[in-house]
């Protein structure tokens, strides 16, 4: 069973930073990559960033240069460090597994964590 826990959200001022984490035993054994998505109120969910099983990161244009995704395999945790936050980054952020070694491990979602950025 995959359980994804996503602590780390909160409320900050524009320009400040937050660090989100997504923890699962599947990341410890490097069986899965991880993706972060966000959904602002009244808008569609959008992809933010991914890190595959080979630790290759990718980013949406809107966060490139400000967000960094990484994986701590010892802890089974995927981190999303968000710097220079903007009000438009305000959203519910969620992680999910992807690109797993076993297909049955794909598409497990965490419960989400709220990020609010004030101007």
Task: Report on the architecture of this protein.
The chain is mainly β and 119 residues long. It has one helix at 25-28, and strands at residues 10-13, 18-23, 33-39, 46-51, 57-59, 67-72, 77-82, 91-98, 113-118. The strands form 2 sheets. A 6-stranded mixed β-sheet has the order 1-9-8-3-4-5, with no helix packed on it. The protein has a 3-stranded antiparallel β-sheet with strand order 2-7-6. Strand 3 (33-39) and strand 4 form a beta hairpin. The longest helix is centred in the N-terminal third of the chain and has 4 residues, at 25-28. The N and C termini lie far apart (40 Å).
Write a compact overview of the structure shown.
With 119 residues, this protein is mostly beta strands. The protein is built from one helix and nine strands; from the N terminus they run ββαβββββββ.
Structural class: mainly beta
Tell me how many strands there are: 9
| Strand proportion | 35-45%
* Tally of contiguous helical segments: 1
Helices and strands, in order, run as EEHEEEEEEE
Share of residues in helices:
under 10%
Output mean pLDDT: 90
The neighbouring-strand order within the major sheet is 1-9-8-3-4-5
Distance between the termini: 40 Å
Query: So what's the overall shape?
Result: globular
Unreliable residue runs:
none
Radius of gyration: 13 Å
Major pleated sheet:
6 strands, mixed
Helices, strands, pairings?
Layout: E1 10-13, E2 18-23, H1 25-28, E3 33-39, E4 46-51, E5 57-59, E6 67-72, E7 77-82, E8 91-98, E9 113-118
Parallel strand pairs: 1-9
Antiparallel strand pairs: 2-7, 3-4, 3-8, 4-5, 6-7, 8-9
